[in-house]
Amino acid sequence: MKTNQIWGNLAVKDLERTTKFYTTLGFKPNGNSEELSSFFFGDNNFVIHFFIKEQLEKFMPGIADLSKGNEIIFSLSAKTKEEVDNWAAEVRKAGGTIFLEPTNYEQGYTFGFSDPDGHKFNVLYWPGM
């Protein structure tokens, strides 16, 4: 399987505090809303989205339990809904655990899985991305 992009999603308790922190450190903003602040990291402009806990929990149930420390989910982009479904089939064949079956999310389509060590990913088709 091939992916075009990868980025990180982290849950935060206080979005304003997080935005101020990374802005103060000089990270280049990648946009923000009431639910998230996004920044570029490193020379390759790796993107990390900092979601308010409730928004990330709505998007990926069970992923944003801050009482257990920081949880990260890496998002892999897909070009079509069919590609998302193909990823799900391949993950099952490879022995991964599907924790979110392929599903519509707002105007996109996604599914979530963890690798054998429990590291979490989601594959996301988002029109125009």
UniProtKB/TrEMBL annotation:
InterPro entries listed in its UniProt record: Glyas_Bleomycin-R_OHBP_Dase (IPR029068), Glyas_Fos-R_dOase_dom (IPR004360), VOC_core (IPR037523)
PROSITE patterns: VOC
Domain VOC: 2-126
Domain of life: Bacteria
PANTHER family on file: BLR2520 PROTEIN (PTHR36503)
Protein name: Glyoxalase
Source organism per UniProt: Flavobacterium sufflavum
